[in-house]
Amino acid sequence: MEKLHTNPERLKKFLTEIAVFGATENNGVSRLALSDEDKGARDQLAKWFKEAGCEMEIDRMGNMFFIRPGKDRSLPPVMTGSHCDSQPQGGRFDGILGIITGLETVCALNDAGVQLERDFIVVNWTNEEGSRFTPGTTGSGVFAGELDMEEMYALTDRNGCTFGEELKRINYMGKKDFNPQPLHANFECHIEQGPVLENVGKPIGVPKGIVCLRWYDVEIQGVPNHVGPTPMNDRKDALYAFSCMNQRIFELGLAAGNVVASVGEVHATPNSRNVIPGHVKFTIDIRGWDEPLTDQVCTDIEEAINSISKKLGMSVNIRCVWKVRRAPFSPELVSMIHETAKELNLPAHDMVSGASHDTVYINQLSPSAMIFVPSIGGRSHAEVEETSWADCAAGADVLLNCVYKTANDPAGTAYTLGE
Ligand code: GLV
Ligand code: MN
Ligand code: MN
Fold first, then answer.
1. Residue 233 contacts by C-beta under 8 Å, 6 or more apart in sequence?
2. What's the Rg (C-alpha) of the chain?
3. How far is CA 208 from CA 61, 205, 226, 330, 404, in A?
4. How far apart are CA 183 and CA 181, in angstroms?
5. Architecture of the CATH domain 213-324
6. CATH code 3.30.70.360 region(s) in the chain
7. Bridge partner list, 370
8. Tens digit of pLDDT for each residue in 261-294?
9. Pocket lining: 129 vs ligand 1, CB cutoff 6 Å
10. Residue 68 φ then ψ, to 5°
11. With a 6 A CB cut-off, is 355 part of the ligand 1 pocket?
12. Which of 97, 137, 260, 357 to mutate to test the pocket of ligand 1 (most atoms within 8 A of CB)?
């Protein structure tokens, strides 16, 4: 069959116009979950999907489901989705590309006059980033039954605002849940967020799955004191203890190979230039494809933190706040993405996703796979994040044709879950 194509100009227009919500001076986006900027982008998405003829459902987690009706509405639907929240000083493509390529798929199917056999659903999952409210992927995690909704409502941001209050404030707490399960297939188109595709010079990445992830909150209790009179050998400087710990975390991640360990957030108290910091709170993020190896690095890091605090005479509290299993994708859908890219003359590359995504949870419910496009300079979670319009269109074309293949299949080819 002749391949379907998305409209690159319209895709670019959607991506450019949605980037206005939370736009930063340096061409990036700050659109934290459940902020006014998130609300603005949500309202815009609702308008566009309505214009494209979709129905909309909003569940109690604020997940937005845009449904393009198929011929037989009793058949399990095909889904795609990602997130429209961003990191602080984040980029214009992370997450939103997966929703906009879904929107462009709907528009291209409309242009071609195609009514699919199955419903096609595009989802905006709430709070993927986990930056304002920890953990992340909360919308997809509750949908998949892996996270508890009431616990998520109770999460607080740095200012003490709760997730539940903020969801209500922006008017996106739905009254009931929407459950389109079982799903026939799920896809997510996303920027790679790393350097692999640029290095191999290919426009499409085909991950075999998503790495496992562990998040920790750590607090060190030292003794605040005056920086002048307190001798160097008589201090309990929590920030010094932190710097020793941070060095070990980096070294242990580096030595493990194929595991990454990062400290992203540090808060020293009282944070004054002439006070010895009495308290430090910091986060650790540890990921890897090899789950036992990743857990070994976690154990080594916990031991290093405990031994440093003991040596320096300070107390420390380490809490694991989030743990996600690795997500191996459906082998048939991974092959389909490869074949589709080939049919579209788009060179594709096998890889693993080092970033996490909503599909990490949806993969547990539904055969799933992802389509990656290159990140210029391998940069992401930063304002400079960039992907060429041609590569965005390439990802959208692969998504469109995979949706066509899976959603126009009334016989119901059975795709398997990844193992
Ligand atoms: C989200 O973008 C993550 O990978 O942490
Ligand atoms: Mn993302
Ligand atoms: Mn992200």
1. none
2. 23
3. 29, 10, 54, 8, 21
4. 5
5. 2-Layer Sandwich (3.30)
6. 213-324
7. 188
8. 999 999 999 999 999 999 999 999 999 999 999 9
9. yes
10. -100, 110
11. yes
12. 357
